[in-house]
Amino acid sequence: MINFNVPPCVGTELDYIKDAIDHRKICGDGDYTKKCNAWFEEKTGAEKALLTTSCTHATEMAALLCNIKPGDEVIMPSFTFVSTADAFVLRGATVVFVDIRPDTMNIDETKIEEAITDKTVAIVPVHYAGVSCEMDTIMDIAKRHNLKVVEDAAQGVMSTYKGQALGTIGDYGAYSFHETKNYSMGEGGALLIKNPEDIEMAEIIREKGTNRAKFFRGQIDKYTWVEAGSSYLPSELNAAYLYAQLQQADKIFDDRMNSWNEYYKAFSELAAEGKIELPTVPEECSHNAHMFYIKAKDLEERTQLISYAREHDVQLVFHYIPLHSAPAGKKYGRFHGEDIYTTKESERLARLPLYYGLTKEDRNRVIEVIRDFYANR
User: Is the same domain home to 106 and 239?
Assistant: First the structure.
């Protein structure tokens, strides 16, 4: 079976993990955590990057920094992972879903403003497949309505919008290093912070509500509980695993991009014939080859495609069930406007195997199976 995903491993991870163990420092905020934070700050230009236990927790931290309270409203797409909504629902907010664009599967920026009420506090754009939302428009709306912007850039590490790293455009950005992501620590994430005045509070929230970070920098002689917070620090062992990959980030990027480009070229004829649709990357966006998907005609055809591929030892997967149609989505949120594309487009999308180290032979097999499926229809 050609698996949909194989977690990345560059070969030096165990050496770095052993080094952390040898230095008797395996809890959070050791040398490897600091190296990862510094790498992201340098690479993205973020004012501050803080490694976290997950992208979910990075988004929860952002919700706390936005001071989300019961009764507040937060606007986001329904086509996203549950964590995007959970972070704000946990603070008592109502999630307001709006439709997506059919080309990028991102939030439709033209639908946001009409969903704003006097209870709206934040906009949460989700950069699907590492392709940026239309951030100039979103930031303009946020500025005019005095709203916070939290970028869900879980899939967007090493992607840019008009040359600016995803996760650094809004007030806060959240990255994911889950095993399915381009760079992994098993479970993990990072919070990117734009405004320097937010850094101290972010450190306090991340350190269980204490000013422990200032204590370790020698800025105070003791630390104490000063705010509500939680434990969002990842293990140093996880950070060591991630740092090994960050040191070879360009190699991983190039490997994935090669597979993405080969898929695109191989399926261009099927797309030209109108049998499938391929991903769209707007001119102002550079993506990171996080995923490659094709769109079938409809749900029935996609189901048959996935079944056919599995019968031929190729694992294709579909993605999110739109949140507004889920039980919790109905309980904690509402859909503003008409669902023109969210459900319809989500039911057509199938993701192909794409990971660091995908062999040419396996990639060609994936291509062959999909071509055969459509040749026989």
Answer: yes
